[in-house]
Every structure is written in C-alpha cells, then in structure tokens.
Amino acid sequence: MSARIDEQHPLQVLQEENFRLRAELAALRDSERVFHALLDNAPVLISTKDLRGTVTMANRHFDILDGYDAAHFVGSNVFELFPHDIAEQLWRNDRKAALEKRAVHEEEQVYHTDKTLHTYMTVKFPLLDAAGEVVATCAVSTDISEAKAARIDSVTDELTGLKNRRYFNIRFAEEQKRAHRDQRMLTLLLIDVDRFKEYNDHYGHPQGDLVLQTVADAMHVTLCRPGDLSFRIGGDEFACLFTSNNVDESVALAEMIRDYMAAQQMPHEANLPYGHVTLSLGLAFVPPDSELGQGAIYELGDQALYRAKHKGRNVVSC
Ligand SMILES: Nc1nc2c(ncn2[C@@H]2O[C@H](COP(=O)(O)OP(=O)(O)OP(=O)(O)O)[C@@H](O)[C@H]2O)c(=O)[nH]1
To answer: Which Pfam families did the record assign (predicted)?
Structure first.
C-alpha cells in the first residue's frame, strides 16, 4: 500500500489533495445553505450573543419583534435593542448559561410589532471554543403565549376568575406534599351559598351570578397570602387550600370570609332569619404527616359544611 503512494507523482498527490479540499468545500457550502435555510424559515427566534451581550447573529424571525431593525440588530448590545427591564431579563439568562456552562430553560417576554407582549420559552446554551472555553451564548425561543393562555383558560372559571375544579384536583396532591415537606398544617375550606336556589328563583340568574362573584371577592380579600389557593368547584360551591399555624388561625380566616359576605347585605328574603346573602363554611384540617388521601379529606370538609348548614347557616363548622 505505502509502496504505491511512494510511486505517486507529487503533482498527482497535489491534484488529489485539491480534489479532496474542493469536495469538502462543496459539502461545507451545502451544509451552510441548509443551515441558513433552517435559520431563515424556522418559526422561532434564534440568535447568538458575545459575552458582553452584543448580538452576533439573529435569524429572520426577529422581524416579528417591536422595533426590530435588520440593519442594526446584529452588532448592537441587548441593552440598546430592548427596553431596560426586558433586556435585563434576557441578559440574566444568557449570563446564567455562560457562567454555569449549561443549557438554561426560562420563560422570557418580548413585545411584537403589534405592541402585544408575548411569552417565549427560551433555551440558552453556551457556545464553546476548541479549548472548551465559553465564547458566546445561543438562544432559541418559541412563542408559547397561545398555549399558555389556553392552559390558563382550561383551569379558570369564567364567571369568577377563580381556578376551577379541574385545577383543584391537580393542585390538591401538590399542596398536600408541600405542606408535608414544610411540616405545616394544610386546611381545606369548603364554602356554599345559603339557599342559593331560592335566591336564583327570586332574584334571577344574572343577580345570582353577581352573588357568586362577590363570594370570589370575599375569598380574594381574605386569602391573599402567596400560596393561598381559591377555587370555584361547582355551581355555588367554593374551596380554599391554605396552610396555617393552627386550627384557630384557619377558623378565623373562614369567619372573615363569612363576615365579609354578610357585611355586603345583599338582600335575600328567603334566607331567614338573616334576610341577606350568607355563606356556610366547613373546615378540614390536614396535619403534616396525615395519611389521608384527597377523597377522605374532602369528605371531612363536606361533613363539616353539612354541620354548618344544620346549625342554621351563616356558620363556620369544623
Ligand atoms: N346564578 C347562577 N346560579 C348557579 C350557577 N351554577 C349553579 N347555580 C345554581 O346554584 C343553585 C345551587 O343550589 P343547591 O345546591 O340546591 O343548594 P342551595 O339552594 O344553595 O341550598 P343550601 O346549600 O342547602 O343552602 C342551583 O339552583 C343552581 O341552578 C351559576 O353559574 N350562576
């Protein structure tokens, strides 16, 4: 084999090397064309930045962004291109990817040409040189605004803006786990409007809707700590999940909701002896190490609510 190569004329060797390099160049150009076609047609934002935040490459999809200017985008710094709060958020994620030398997945928000704010799921990852040093970052961003809105719609009650029963079922187990982890007592509070059927019959459905919205207000006003969750789980049935330090604290919160509603003095002739709209509330307490499942805990809350109704309504029961 080596004998044959030794016999080759130097010119022939050069010619073969030339052919090989030309073929490699043609292959590189082909792959470059594919690369640019991908960049130009991908319905996602793809860009690279140097370690000072200057954009070094951006694909055509960027023309969807408000204020985008193809002539000046590449070569400008992220803080020159975007409003300060947006630039800060974008640059923070680039820095994280570069410093931690790993892909970072974050939601980011930017304005489109129609001035609407869009949410993107962005993956940012470091670009390394031959020695393994980070020299730039690359960002690939997909618009998730519609999917996010649809997801929120699917778990939101249209009338009150509270989360619905579907979300209640999703969150219940998560909240129980969280309470266990934090060694806090979880409270399930069930709320029901008193004699609501009669209210609707007497005052009409639209007025009934107003009552339901007022219940949501009462829950918002009272349970406003981060982590407090409020749901409309049926027609006139509502639920709250929250952690507290003890039973008295939970009862006090439930009483505040009851009192807020009563204080609105919404006339309800059939709801005697009160004469205005009232609520019945049932509490179930879940100690951090409770073995009870969602069904059993809900049952406890429901029984407490039943007792509240039987004690004369406008009552909080445990
Ligand atoms: N206005 C309005 N009414 C609704 C809605 N969803 C359910 N309802 C009504 O809510 C009422 C629920 O009544 P019930 O569950 O029978 O109980 P109640 O009359 O509140 O009686 P107690 O709970 O025993 O005090 C029914 O008349 C439903 O038609 C809604 O979105 N809007």
So the answer is: GGDEF (PF00990), PAS_4 (PF08448)
Between 3.40.190.10, 3.30.540.10, 3.40.50.970, 3.30.450.20, what CATH number should domain 42-148 receive? 3.30.450.20
Q: Which two tokens stand for residue 236?
A: 């006139």
DSSP at 8: S
pLDDT per position as a tens digit, 74-83: 999 999 999 9
Instruction: Locate the DSSP E strands across the chain.
Output: 45-50, 55-58, 104-111, 117-128, 134-143, 185-193, 229-232, 237-244, 279-286, 316-317
Domain at 155-317, CATH homologous superfamily: Reverse transcriptase/Diguanylate cyclase domain (3.30.70.270)
Does any ligand 1 atom lie closer than 6 A to the CB of residue 271? no
Nearest CA to ligand 1 atom 8: 235
**Cα 161 to ligand 1 centroid, rounded to whole Å:** 18
Q: Is the dihedral of CA 264, 270, 275, 281 positive or negative?
A: negative
pLDDT digits (tens, 9 = 90+) for 7-53: 788 889 999 999 999 999 999 999 999 999 999 999 999 999 999 99
Domain boundaries, the chain: 42-148, 155-317
Is-contact 231 163, C-beta < 8 A?
Answer: yes
Q: Which of 236, 237, 269, 317 is the pocket-test mutation for ligand 1 (most atoms within 8 Å of CB)?
A: 236
